[in-house]
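Summary of Year 1 activities. Much of the first year was spent building the evaluation harness for sequence design. The harness presents a backbone, in tokenized form, and records the residue chosen at every position. We chose the following record to illustrate the format because it has been used consistently in internal testing since the harness was completed.
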């Protein structure tokens, strides 16, 4: 290998990579914990080192030039390698203190994880836990999270997964709502229903219709982008919402909104990058979550 061929500073390459990923200098500076002028100087210096223009300004944002786009994948591989090196080095120590990022849907993050995390901190006070509560899957290959709770099995060979259980979804409402509207038993009962949709309405209705429910957009009273927001609206009697049946059944004052259970089954997986096998801290948290989630569900 020609070691003299790489004549640039890794910190500057990282500045380029994060700026490209985040889409602006301000967002990249926040992600790296740097002042924006410092980050800007690093990006400018990287362009000078390489002798190419990597970004063009459009309004307040940045857009990769063709040269920048062609170099981005190489920078990503460098970033992945740097993270892998850091994780491997940390894995040589038995010290379990340090950061761990866990990704889960906002419903699981808000309704399942808090008591588990409290127990986790009791076991290992040195852990610094970050929760990514999003309803889209974090990219574990790009280390957006260390560990993820998902409803599907990963296909990437670099990821390891442990199946926690199978569960199913249910439609729920508050007791006060059911007193006003009744439990849905027949098709015409949907005419008086107030459905709270967390996400795309068309996809949501198609899924319910696929399970034999004669529901249309006329029943949709509220839309939101968060399952946790939807669930709070259900708790306050605004309408009917869908949730993992084991979570719904635990909530006081909440009962099934339809007479028959939905045959909507799905798995729960705990997923991580294969690197956790060589990192004591990540492996501890992975195994801890596995044990605790099995108790909960």
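For this record, the design step produced the sequence shown next.
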């Amino acid at each position: 290998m020609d070691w003299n061929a790489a004549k640039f500073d890794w910190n500057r390459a990282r500045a380029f990579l994060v700026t490209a990923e985040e889409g602006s200098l301000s967002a990249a500076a926040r992600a790296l914990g740097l002042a924006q002028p410092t980050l800007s100087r690093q990006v400018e210096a990287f362009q000078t080192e390489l002798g190419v223009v990597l970004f063009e300004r459009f309004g307040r944002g940045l857009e990769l030039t063709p040269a920048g786009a062609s170099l981005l994948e190489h920078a990503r591989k460098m970033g992945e390698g740097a993270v892998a090196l850091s994780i491997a080095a940390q894995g040589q120590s038995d010290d379990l203190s340090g950061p761990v990022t866990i990704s889960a849907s906002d419903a699981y993050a808000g309704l399942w994880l808090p008591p588990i995390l409290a127990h986790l901190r009791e076991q290992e006070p040195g852990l610094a836990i970050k929760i990514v509560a999003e309803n889209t899957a974090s990219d574990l290959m790009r280390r957006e999270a260390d560990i993820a709770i998902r409803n599907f099995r990963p296909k990437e060979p670099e990821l390891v997964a442990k199946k926690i259980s199978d569960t199913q979804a249910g439609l729920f409402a508050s007791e006060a709502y059911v007193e006003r509207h009744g439990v849905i038993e027949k098709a015409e009962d949907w005419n008086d229903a107030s459905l709270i949709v967390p996400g795309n309405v068309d996809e949501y209705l198609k899924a319910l219709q696929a399970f034999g429910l004669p529901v249309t957009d006329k029943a949709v009273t509220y839309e939101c982008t968060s399952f946790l927001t939807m669930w709070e609206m259900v708790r306050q009697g605004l309408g009917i919402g869908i949730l993992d049946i084991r979570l719904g059944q635990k909530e006081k004052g909440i009962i099934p909104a339809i007479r028959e259970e939905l045959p909507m089954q799905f798995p729960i997986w705990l997923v991580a990058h294969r690197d956790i096998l060589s990192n004591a801290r990540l492996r501890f948290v992975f195994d801890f979550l596995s044990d605790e989630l099995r108790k909960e569900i």
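The chain has eleven helices and eleven strands. Quantitative recovery figures across the full test set are reported in Table 2.
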